[in-house]
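Record type: monomer structure entry
Structure origin: computed from sequence
Chain ID: A
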Amino acid sequence: MALLSPGKRIKLEALWRSMPPRVRTGLYGAAQAAAAADPESQGLLDVFNELEALMGEPAGDLAKAYLFEPLRALTAEPNSVPPSKYRFSPDNLSKIWGWLGRQIAKELVEEVRKCRKPGSDPVWNDYRCDAAAALAEAVARADRVPKDMTALDKRFGPDCRSMLHDAVDLLKFNERIAAAMVDIPAVVDDFDPELCELVRAQHEQLLAEAPESAVWLLLLVMGRLTSPWQIFRVVEKIGRRGDDLVVSKTELAAIGDTVLADTGFYAGKLKHPPANMAEAQDYFETFERYVGYSTGMVQEFGIRKDGRWGRSLFGLRAEASTNVEKVMEKVPLALDTGLPEPRRGRSGRIIPAQLPPTAAIERATGLLYFLFRAREHANAAAIASAQKRIYEQAERRMQEAGKMLVDLVADSSGQARVSAEECLAIVANLLDAAGSTESAGLLRRRGIAAAA
């Protein structure tokens, strides 16, 4: 079509657009078959390719998403995902896009907005390489020119260089990395030896062809593992060692550092006690994830206590254990306000308790739920002694309160009985939350019998 005059190009495009889709598809298929059989027919196929490209809508506002597709797997709101899945925030990408469009690559942004080809078309790989080159040049210039450095820090923040260099690498090597990732499942429940060997081979190839891209393959694979600490299986193969003595001092250190950062991410979220059942369930999931990282890292790889990774890991373990124990120690206080505990007067008569506030009941319910579930990982998290002690004390308090409430139901009538029954139901629900389902069921049956 390059040899045609503008007028003829317009007419040819109009003719192509006027054809029914099935006719266009038939002509296009025939041209493909002819080109496969006779290389001299390639020219006709090229014309049809250009015409088909014109049928699409301009990328417009989608251009940004198409251009930054290689960054999507590592884009999230800050602190919403572990570090292994975070390199960029949506705000970072918006600022990079604006920087490209207004200052360092205006023509490129105009061109990609007009591009009619889908985001999967190879032309976008070329655009990404152009964007990477523009970003790299601008960052290098900022390093040389104080005024540009100040502007860069003002736009992205004082620690932006690492983020921008990461963007450059992922855009520049997108095609190679995507090709290496094509056989990796989107979700990997078990990083088995066969898949591990595939990743090792792909890493070796990238290391030979584009060394800067090799570590990104491992980080992106790690993001697909249900158990991210299993990434050490391929680290061991690549580093040819089963411990961190040498590996932690090579380029593979970035992998171990990321696993540690993930561990710290989950450990840090254990500082804040849950205020209700929903929060307690989230808290337990966080705790379980932390334990998975903490123990998995050691099980998968030889982490020396006196090594760099070992010191960091055992420091995180100590911090996490302390935080979880502090949360469990709030259970007695939560029961003080959320458990309707009758008391006996000097005469032996049972004095009813006030109906607790809803928020206090919810807080006690959540904390008891976590206290019960924490038993599953108590040894691994080094909290077994504290968990057992606090749980037994809490269970004893609830059972004693339940016994007195049964007596209160039996000995009262009218509104007093209604209040006692409401309190008994609260105690039974708290026992359920604490995993004492048999005790809760027995308490409910005794309450019904007492009211009969």
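Annotation 1: Residues 428 and 444 are 7 Å apart (CA to CA).
Annotation 2: The chain has a mean pLDDT of 89.
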